[in-house]
Automatic annotation (TrEMBL):
Transmembrane segments: none annotated. Pfam families: Ribonuc_L-PSP (PF01042). InterPro entries: RutC-like_sf, YjgF/YER057c/UK114, YoaB-like. This is Enamine deaminase RidA (YjgF/YER057c/UK114 family).
Amino acid sequence: MLKIDRIDSSKGASRIVKYNGIAYFTGHSARPGFKTLKEQTAAVLARYDELFAQHGLKKENIIVMNAYLADIKMIDEFNEVYEAWIDGVYAPAGVAVEAKPMGENNLLELQFNVAYDESEEA
Protein backbone atom coordinates (compact mmCIF):
# COMPACT_ATOMS: atom_id res chain seq x y z
CA MET A 1 0.00 0.00 0.00
CA LEU A 2 1.26 3.47 -0.87
CA LYS A 3 2.05 5.84 1.96
CA ILE A 4 0.39 9.14 1.07
CA ASP A 5 0.04 11.76 3.81
CA ARG A 6 -2.74 14.30 3.35
CA ILE A 7 -2.36 17.32 5.61
CA ASP A 8 -5.12 19.81 6.51
CA SER A 9 -7.66 18.03 4.34
CA SER A 10 -11.11 19.28 3.55
CA LYS A 11 -13.80 17.68 1.40
CA GLY A 12 -12.17 18.63 -1.88
CA ALA A 13 -8.49 19.27 -1.24
CA SER A 14 -5.57 19.00 1.15
CA ARG A 15 -3.24 21.88 1.98
CA ILE A 16 -0.30 19.52 1.44
CA VAL A 17 0.00 16.00 0.10
CA LYS A 18 3.28 14.23 0.88
CA TYR A 19 4.28 11.27 -1.25
CA ASN A 20 7.58 9.64 -2.15
CA GLY A 21 9.76 12.49 -0.87
CA ILE A 22 7.73 15.31 -2.46
CA ALA A 23 5.37 17.70 -0.65
CA TYR A 24 2.73 18.99 -3.06
CA PHE A 25 1.10 22.20 -1.87
CA THR A 26 -2.28 23.49 -2.88
CA GLY A 27 -2.28 27.04 -4.24
CA HIS A 28 -2.17 29.86 -1.70
CA SER A 29 -3.36 33.43 -2.05
CA ALA A 30 -2.97 36.43 0.23
CA ARG A 31 -5.55 37.13 2.89
CA PRO A 32 -7.80 40.14 2.29
CA GLY A 33 -6.26 43.55 2.84
CA PHE A 34 -3.21 43.28 0.59
CA LYS A 35 -3.93 45.44 -2.45
CA THR A 36 -0.91 45.37 -4.77
CA LEU A 37 0.68 42.34 -6.39
CA LYS A 38 3.94 43.09 -4.56
CA GLU A 39 2.10 43.09 -1.20
CA GLN A 40 0.21 39.91 -2.07
CA THR A 41 3.36 38.14 -3.24
CA ALA A 42 5.22 39.06 -0.04
CA ALA A 43 2.26 37.91 2.09
CA VAL A 44 1.95 34.55 0.32
CA LEU A 45 5.70 33.91 0.53
CA ALA A 46 5.66 34.77 4.25
CA ARG A 47 2.86 32.22 4.69
CA TYR A 48 4.93 29.62 2.83
CA ASP A 49 7.85 30.39 5.16
CA GLU A 50 5.54 29.57 8.07
CA LEU A 51 4.25 26.39 6.43
CA PHE A 52 7.76 25.22 5.53
CA ALA A 53 8.90 25.74 9.13
CA GLN A 54 5.82 23.99 10.48
CA HIS A 55 6.31 20.95 8.25
CA GLY A 56 10.11 20.72 8.26
CA LEU A 57 10.54 21.79 4.64
CA LYS A 58 13.31 23.93 3.19
CA LYS A 59 13.08 26.68 0.61
CA GLU A 60 16.22 25.37 -1.09
CA ASN A 61 14.38 22.10 -1.81
CA ILE A 62 11.59 23.66 -3.88
CA ILE A 63 11.57 21.82 -7.18
CA VAL A 64 8.56 23.40 -8.92
CA MET A 65 6.86 26.81 -8.60
CA ASN A 66 3.56 27.63 -10.29
CA ALA A 67 2.32 31.22 -10.21
CA TYR A 68 -1.14 32.18 -11.42
CA LEU A 69 -1.40 35.92 -12.03
CA ALA A 70 -4.61 37.81 -12.67
CA ASP A 71 -2.71 39.89 -15.24
CA ILE A 72 0.49 38.49 -16.79
CA LYS A 73 1.54 42.07 -17.60
CA MET A 74 2.29 42.38 -13.86
CA ILE A 75 4.95 39.64 -13.98
CA ASP A 76 7.77 42.08 -13.20
CA GLU A 77 6.12 43.04 -9.90
CA PHE A 78 5.81 39.37 -8.96
CA ASN A 79 9.37 38.55 -10.05
CA GLU A 80 10.86 41.42 -8.05
CA VAL A 81 9.53 40.00 -4.77
CA TYR A 82 9.78 36.30 -5.65
CA GLU A 83 13.37 36.47 -6.94
CA ALA A 84 14.53 38.27 -3.78
CA TRP A 85 12.82 35.58 -1.67
CA ILE A 86 14.17 32.57 -3.61
CA ASP A 87 17.63 34.19 -3.78
CA GLY A 88 18.47 32.63 -7.17
CA VAL A 89 20.82 30.04 -5.70
CA TYR A 90 18.20 27.29 -5.54
CA ALA A 91 15.87 28.47 -8.29
CA PRO A 92 13.26 25.80 -9.03
CA ALA A 93 11.63 24.95 -12.32
CA GLY A 94 8.68 27.26 -12.65
CA VAL A 95 5.94 28.77 -14.68
CA ALA A 96 3.86 31.90 -14.39
CA VAL A 97 0.61 32.09 -16.31
CA GLU A 98 -2.36 34.40 -16.51
CA ALA A 99 -5.35 32.90 -14.73
CA LYS A 100 -8.03 34.06 -12.34
CA PRO A 101 -6.80 33.31 -8.81
CA MET A 102 -9.37 32.10 -6.29
CA GLY A 103 -10.75 34.71 -3.95
CA GLU A 104 -12.10 38.18 -4.50
CA ASN A 105 -9.44 40.80 -5.32
CA ASN A 106 -6.63 38.23 -5.42
CA LEU A 107 -3.99 38.99 -8.01
CA LEU A 108 -1.89 35.87 -7.31
CA GLU A 109 -2.19 32.22 -6.43
CA LEU A 110 1.12 30.47 -5.77
CA GLN A 111 1.88 26.76 -5.53
CA PHE A 112 5.07 24.81 -4.77
CA ASN A 113 6.26 21.21 -4.89
CA VAL A 114 9.06 20.63 -2.39
CA ALA A 115 11.43 17.68 -1.99
CA TYR A 116 12.08 16.41 1.53
CA ASP A 117 14.05 13.63 3.17
CA GLU A 118 11.54 11.02 4.30
CA SER A 119 14.09 9.56 6.72
CA GLU A 120 14.06 12.84 8.69
CA GLU A 121 10.31 12.69 9.37
CA ALA A 122 9.25 11.88 12.90
